[in-house]
Amino acid sequence: MSARTKDDIAAAIARDITAEHPDGAYVNLGIGQPTLVADHLPHDSGVVLHTENGMLAMGPAAHGDDIDPDLINAGKIPVTELPGAAYFHQADSFAMMRGGHLDVCVLGAFQVSAGGDLANWHTGAPDAIPAVGGAMDLAIGAKRVWVMMTLFDKQGASKLVPTCTYPLTGVGCIERVYTDLGTFAVGPSGVHALEINGIDIDDLVERMAPLELHLDRVVRAGGDR
Amino acid sequence: MSARTKDDIAAAIARDITAEHPDGAYVNLGIGQPTLVADHLPHDSGVVLHTENGMLAMGPAAHGDDIDPDLINAGKIPVTELPGAAYFHQADSFAMMRGGHLDVCVLGAFQVSAGGDLANWHTGAPDAIPAVGGAMDLAIGAKRVWVMMTLFDKQGASKLVPTCTYPLTGVGCIERVYTDLGTFAVGPSGVHALEINGIDIDDLVERMAPLELHLDRVVRAGGDR
Amino acid sequence: MTARICTGTGGTGYDEAVAGTADGSTVLVGGFGMAGMPVELVDALIRQGAGDLTIVSNNAGNGDTGLAALLATGRVRRIVCSFPRQADSWVFDDLYRSGRIELEVVPQGNLAERLRAAGAGIGAFYSPTAVGTPLAEGKEVREIDGRTYLLEYPIHGDLALIKAHTADRMGNLVYRKTARNFGPVMATAARTVAVQVDRVVDTGTLDPESVVTPGVYVDRIVPATQEAAA
Amino acid sequence: MTARICTGTGGTGYDEAVAGTADGSTVLVGGFGMAGMPVELVDALIRQGAGDLTIVSNNAGNGDTGLAALLATGRVRRIVCSFPRQADSWVFDDLYRSGRIELEVVPQGNLAERLRAAGAGIGAFYSPTAVGTPLAEGKEVREIDGRTYLLEYPIHGDLALIKAHTADRMGNLVYRKTARNFGPVMATAARTVAVQVDRVVDTGTLDPESVVTPGVYVDRIVPATQEAAA
Fold this sequence. Notes:
CATH topology of chain C: Glutaconate Coenzyme A-transferase
Number of helices of chain A: 4
CATH class of chain A: Alpha Beta
Structural class of chain C: alpha/beta
Structural class of chain A: alpha/beta
Number of domains of chain A: 1
Order of helices and strands of chain A: HEEEEHEEEHEEEEEHEE
CATH architecture of chain C: 3-Layer(aba) Sandwich
Order of helices and strands of chain C: EHEHEHEHEHEEEEEHEE
Oligomer: heterotetramer
Strand content of chain A: 25-35%
Helix content of chain C: 10-25%
Number of helices of chain C: 6
């Protein structure tokens, strides 16, 4: 079994949302890669998408004549409206998030700590212009907040870290991390691999060091051990 | 000139609202006597009535077939809807008041102090069941809060007092007091009679003592001095 | 997570909507006077039998029905409301005077805002209402920008009982006139939200611009009649 | 107090709507990206010429038009927003890097809630957003019921510029789809509220159940075309 593509990761997230919320769920998908999750949700999943700029029951991206400049998602991409949609203003939209009414939120990340801290808004570069958008609200804005990212950065360093070195977006807010090389639970008891894909377990443990990786909960391992 | 009836007082309030807000005003009329003010507002006054249970552009009381149990005022009396009406929930309705968006609120009172404190929710009787409703929100809920009451209670004691003896509803919130025997400005500079009706000024000063009544602003005096 | 239409298998839909209410629950009850009062849901809560309840509602019951009937069962330990005493609140009055019910009086606007805060994930807020009054007793006072405020905390419910006009199958709600009152804020403030409605319409029927309570807040819906559920 | 329909005597209606804006004003500008962005009102504010402005808006301008054009005039001293840096925010980027504009970055939800608090007369509130992050610096921290919060203060505007879909002559507003975004909260938070709309309809035409911004909040209305004002 090989490492997962973006679509494979998105499919795994979609599979878990539907399996763990059989009656449907209210879900916010962060801008960028997490939006791919929508493509993998079955039509009868009962999943309703929230976009923080003020809408529930958001549909797929709009094309051609369906594009309406008044109907966009949080990434400012034209989208469509599904039956049962509702529009609301920004304070109501973030009240819905902050109040814990959404079931799942999926975000991208620069780093996630073993304890579930999230860093996804700022690289820490001294000349970077700070811009947070809804990232900090989303980080604490659902019953369960998951991350979708590559496990290693371009320099080969693990983005799952003992302690984030980038500026934080939220503290202890992440429950699970979906990556190309596996799925991980994070939190007070540290990092537990749930699934490993396309990499030998020993290799994975070594490359993620000094992070301590717990293997007690691995349900699927795609490596050759 | 005689003492003012309830309707006279209401007419005086209506006259001042329209004179002082020639472009119209958003007004809340407290339950009980203040609702009479509505009957004295000209149709073209531009005054829009707010009821704190969630409506703007409230119309007159409903009768007969017009009665709709879903359309009531804060006194739980069936009312009607005028063109341009809007409905909103309780948090939005009180946000509108608390945020100072209404121009005038008219309330009944047990007592008003020289400094503008209001007592209108509780007699202070030890066995009374406390019940405040929207009184404390209304007391601070408009740019200008006026009181409509009789000047003296049944025992002949002035209800305009140096310091309220009844439990307070709000502190320093009242700007003006309309009574059967005159209209008074209250506030940091004390009580100034603006108009005196149906009572000799000297009698009035004597009966209101020990309250110090300033007479520098009297524009109409209905007594026989 | 989608709303359940309660059609009353093994009882009425109202019974189904309040099933599982635990002793000691905090129950938010909508309505201002009779407008928006979920009478049939309150009646079902009486049949359901949960005790040691805290009730949050604008009033404390009228006459001998609805909320007053619930109070009369003796199963309400505490009531949080703005205006308990009314001409026909004899049930509450008697319980209160004989020390059999606790009362927290909250100004109506603070009541609405505390419910909103619960639904919006706000930890507490500073309100100018009630400053300098007996209802300020025990509350933290703070001056901000020259004005004095009191610190007010959210009011969370375990269950909310509200009445709306129309629901779609996803639980989106619209209300009718001043019967809207506490419904929308209470719907955000409780873990389980049960709504009685005049009718249920197909999803896609309500105008998305006009939905007042989005379906995310609604758990159980009881249509007024079986036909209304069709 | 009723809303004024600005038909542009001696200029465009947009100019009439922003007339009298003082130097040093705080101006709230609606919109999320281009949805709900009151471009023509911002252009009128440029013509009007007020300086030393504080702008509150979700973004800090795109390309060379609208908010970006206003920034380029050098008349904005400070901007409060959630997401200034975008692919086409070169005007802001240049001003910021050369130290010619002050920036306060506020998480989007706190921005919306602080505007709402201003409109609702709330003195301050405790928000869980940004706890433990660099944006918590200098803010009061408080633990309530086991969770940590930051104290956030209201954002008041002298002027709000927003875009809605339809207004009636009393100033009641409805919006269109996600263009609603910041409009309703900004309309409550400013002393003077100017709204550009696609059309103005007679009072009594809008459904009272569907009004999103009641007329009490609206001061000046500019219809998109003269015909739309008829």
